[in-house]
Design brief:
The structure holds 2 protein chains of 2 kinds.
Chain A: H1 3-16, H2 18-29, H3 32-48, H4 59-78, H5 86-95, H6 105-111, H7 114-125, H8 130-137, H9 141-170
Helix pairs in contact in A: 2-3, 2-4, 3-4, 4-8, 7-9, 8-9
Chain B: H1 5-12, H2 19-32, H3 36-39, H4 49-62, H5 64-69, E1 81-92, E2 95-105, H6 110-137, E3 144-155, E4 159-170, E5 172-183, E6 188-190, H7 200-219, E7 246-248, E8 254-258, E9 271-275, H8 277-280
Parallel strand pairs in B: 2-3
Antiparallel strand pairs in B: 1-2, 3-4, 4-5, 5-6, 7-8, 8-9
Classes of the chains: A mainly alpha, B alpha+beta.
Protein name (chain B): DUF3298 domain-containing protein
Keywords (chain B): Membrane, Transmembrane, Transmembrane helix
Pfam family, one (chain B): DUF3298
Amino acid sequence: MNRRRFEELLVSCITEHKESTYRLAYSYVHNKEDALDIVQEAIQKAFISLNTLHKPASMKSWYFRIVVTTALDFLRKRSRVQPVDDEVLLTLGLESEDHYHNLDLEQALEELPFKYKSVIVLRYFEDLKIEEIADILGENVNTIKTRLYQALKLLRVKLKDDSMEEVRQHA
Amino acid sequence: MRNLDPLKKRYDNIPIPQELDDVVNQALKASRRKDVRGMKTIKWAVGSAAAAVVIFVGSVNASPAVVHALSEVPVLNSLVKVVTFRDYKVDEGHYNADFQVPAIQDMNNKALEELLNSKYVNENKELYQSFMKQMKQQKGEGHLGVVSGYEVKTDNDRILSIARYVEKTVGSTEETLQFDTIDKKNEVLLTLPSLFKDDSYIALISNNIREQMEAQMKKDGDKVYWIGENAEDGDAFTTIKPDQHFYINNNGKLVISFDKYEVAPGSMGSVEFTIPSDVITNALVSHAYIK
């Protein structure tokens, strides 16, 4: 297979998944302009690094990975707040339940560190297989399974706290 | 386990903006040409020129900082002025566009200012949309160049005349011109009929232009206007339109403008005639503008 054929496949892949990748980007940045920028940059990067893709079969995961990386890079550059290490955030989330009152599920998801959020978005919103997610995020399958479990636990913890708040108010 | 359906629904409902197709197509085209450096100039902002322009109208009026950042046409001792408000470029192989949108500023008559500015924005928005449409229809196989811009014809104490031009190149070049002339003192937009007591000006001006055409052709064998035997039936220039394009030059003279092909072969381009003031002096409402 030559470069030309690869490019053709990439064009179909990008076109077929343009809405998914836009939503994926949007789920990180929450605004249209930035999400469009990310999609554009990801396409650009995909063509530049096409030679790093060896199997056409994994093109989708490979391209989604570029989109996720681009979105995260974008947020890193954008963020004016010093990012706290994921583990620290996780601990905070687990330990200081009282700070999470009035958060609905969506906010709870937004509060998740990206490595957990990405797993939720890809697994439940984009309906991807654990194996694909592992490919996209560059982790092994077991790590993804663990993260998924932790992410769900974290969401439930937050929500439980929320409902507890409700109960308290009614009491 | 948690029911994530409401979140999934929200995710699925993230609206897909219209610009997405443009952004993706442009990025694909640019990347496939491997002209990745060139891509920097095709920011997606082009894809939503219209929307960005509209937002920009607000900011020009609202923020002195934004106004300051714009390149200003040097204007002395005058309040009302013209700035380049936005310049959009598309550069994709055989498809090139450059839309330069002017904006009037610092007019007390905000209604007029907005009317003109939104007209400028809308004109360019339409140009952009038809450009993109044509590009899409031809699937990048054709050629198209569109340039829009403006020129300040006159800017003195009394008069501000702006010419806006559009040049379309599809094989041959098509050119159209539009003018706005503003009385800066009274902050009103001047129309050709508004300068005259009655419509006698149409004949006065038309006759003078025909004389000028004949004189020019006699003097210079290369010049051709569509009058007399030069013209095919129906093509001949007989009279100006009541609202023929015009502006008032810095000497206070009325200048009548014709688009390319309107009164002469395309090789002549767009042409203009300065009307001697004594020809129209009796028909003028006042001599405030035309001297």
